Amino acid sequence: MSRVEGALPLLSVAARSGVRRIGRRAPRRWRLTALLGALGVVAQGCTARATEQPGDLPAGSATASSGIVIRVMTFNLWHGGEAGGEPLERTVDVIRAARADIVGLQETHGLERDGAREDHAPLIAAALGWHAAPQGGRTAIISRFPVVSMTPQRWGCAVELDDGRRLLVFNVHLAASPYQPYQLLGIPYHDAPFLSTPAALIDAARSARGGDVSRLLDEVGVALTCGVPVVVTGDFNEPSHLDWSPRAAEAGAAPAAVAYPTSRALIDAGLRDAWRVIHPCEVGAPGWTWTPTTAEDDPTDRHDRIDFVYVGSDVQLIDCAIVGERPDRAEIVVTPYPSDHRGVVATLRLPRRGSG
């Protein structure tokens, strides 16, 4: 999401990658074979499960008993890290401060110059000495681990970890408009109509993002079926039903109880919201990622959590932190901060081979 004047409209991955769907969806077993074949992932033996055990382990560490620990981040750059007037090095500083190993990036292209907008994802990856997997549509995945291949629809990629296993990383930037909190609160944005009921908000959210969510889950779902470790990062441009809960509404922490459809769809598919697993109280730990650029009592805005890291059940969550501009809203602080979104970084453990 961005409120910069002249911002370009967002494109879905299906549109940006030139994918055209004709006729009925392929049977699930065919999609599974195509996805895993393209990634070079073997489904057999990928059924390990882990129990949540929060702790504080260094990223990249591995032991025979505990498996490998990595840190996965989502970060909307705000027009390539340039819209806030900071040099690109500041964006690199944020990723370093987060001690991330893999980052899903959104809004990777910089401001327009001579009719073109440069993709900054390869530049950021190069500055870190990392690998880059451009997805199109101003999104990319960068990783200190080698990128093996992209998924067929380019929603994600496979990275090869230090122990030779592969992790599937998906990354999204869903449509920013219409934005349902603004529609409910009467805040003008992209000429979207104002709405007054939870049902209307749910319908509007599903109309804006439901198609892309379904296409994303086409790929994520088949990966989850065989137990391949999966993470999903992104700027979803939609709050979570776990935040706009009846309890939050009663406490005044949310304007209403709304069962937002995108977060429900991902959780129903078998994913877990990393922030909300580690910080289960939506009232005491809102985890706002939108936005550091306006005051929290600004009547023309609504602060919320719209940037997420989701993980599959094969991934053990150790910690999850917000990366931002001030210590009362972020566990990892970088100043000056270059984006209009706070980042989210999750510390994960993948069980050792053969554990169960």
List the SSEs and their pairings.
Elements: H1 13-16, H2 28-39, E1 62-63, E2 67-76, H3 88-98, E3 102-106, H4 121-128, E4 131-136, E5 139-143, E6 147-150, E7 156-160, E8 166-173, H5 180-185, H6 198-225, E9 230-235, H7 246-251, H8 261-268, E10 272-273, H9 274-278, E11 307-311, E12 316-324, E13 332-333, E14 343-350
Parallel strand pairs: 2-3, 8-9, 12-13
Antiparallel strand pairs: 1-2, 2-14, 3-5, 4-5, 6-7, 7-8, 9-11, 10-11, 12-14
Describe the structure.
With 356 residues, the chain is of the alpha+beta class. It is built from nine helices and 14 strands. Strands 1, 2, 3, 4, 5, 12, 13 and 14 form an eight-stranded mixed sheet that branches. The chain has a six-stranded mixed sheet with strand order 6-7-8-9-11-10. Helix 2 packs across helix 6 (198-225). The longest helix has 28 residues, at 198-225. The model is unreliable at 4-24, 43-58 and 61-65 (pLDDT under 50).
**3D shape:** globular
Average pLDDT, to the nearest integer?
Answer: 87
> Helix amount, in percent?
10-25%
Structural class determined from secondary elements: alpha+beta
Number of DSSP-assigned strands: 14
The H-and-E topology, N to C, reads as HHEEHEHEEEEEHHEHHEHEEEE
Q: Unreliable stretches, pLDDT < 50, 5 or more residues? A: 4-24, 43-58, 61-65
**Tally of separate helices:** 9
Task: Report the biggest beta sheet as strand number plus sense, adding barrel if it closes.
Answer: 8 strands, mixed
Radius of gyration computed on alpha carbons: 19 Å
Strand content: 15-25%
- Tell me the span between the first and last alpha carbons: 40 Å
